[in-house]
Amino acid sequence: MTRKEERELAFTLIFEKIFNDDLTVEEIIKNAVEARLIEENVFACSLAQLTYDNRDEIDRIISENSVGWKIERLPKVTLAIMRLAFCELLYVPSVPTGVTINEAVELAKKFASQEDASFINGILGKYVRENSL
Asked: Which residues, other chains included, contact 81 with Cβ-Cβ below 8 Å and sequence gap of 6+?
């Protein structure tokens, strides 16, 4: 599995968690593996878990940088992509900043819309510029 595919799998798990907040990330992964919907992948699963372990901090940063948008009003796909991207920016220093932003934009183009991709690019770019990442 390529890193791009692993990131897409992590996005899928994060998105699924939004709708199943009563389940743990481990339970979501177990259910998906048992249903043969996914192959378990260490990077993707750990990235999804890391995102949810730090969800409060990540959501605070998204809220601070999404001027005019409350986090509850963001489309769920956009929220999942931004949570994943901010997780990488904050907690996975081995992934270059430009790669994180580009991959987030590509996920938005694939699973959301061009407007969502532009919004995500703007929020991530603003954060990176203001925090010298």
From this structure: 11, 104, 107, 108, 111, 112, 116, 120
Calculate the alpha carbon distances from 35 to 28, 38, 48 in Å.
11, 8, 19
Residue type, 115: E
Angle between helices 3-19 and 42-53 (to 10 degrees): 40
Task: Give the pLDDT confidence of 37-92 residue by residue, as tens digits.
Answer: 677 788 999 999 999 999 999 999 999 998 888 898 999 999 999 999 999 999 99
The owner of tokens 């996975």 is 92
Q: For tokens 């990442």, what's the residue?
A: 133
Q: Where are the domains of the chain?
A: 3-130
Residues 3-130, CATH architecture: Orthogonal Bundle (1.10)
Contact by Cβ (8 Å): 91, 49? no
Reduced to 3 states (helix: H, G, I; strand: E, B; else coil), residue 75 is coil
* pLDDT 10s digits, 81-101: 999 999 999 999 999 999 999
DSSP code at position 71 = G
